Amino acid sequence: MVTNPLVSIIVPNYNGLRWLGPCLTTITAQTYQPIEIIVVDNASTDASCEFIRANFPGVRILRLPQNCGYAGANNHAARAARGDFLLFLNNDTKLAPNAVAELVTALLRDPKAAIAAPRITDYDGTAPGTCGMSLDIFGYPYAPAAGESLFYADGAAFLIRHDVFEALGGFDEDYFLFYEDMDLSWRTWLAGYTIIPVSTALVNHYGSGSAPGGRIKEGTFATTPQRRYLGERNRLTNLLKNFGFRTLIWILPCYIAMTAAAALLLAATGRWQLALAYPKAYWWNVTHLRRTMYKRSGVQQSRKVPDREIMSRMHKGSAEFALLQSRGLPRVL
Question: How far apart are CA 115 and CA 107, in angstroms?
Answer without folding.
Answer: 7
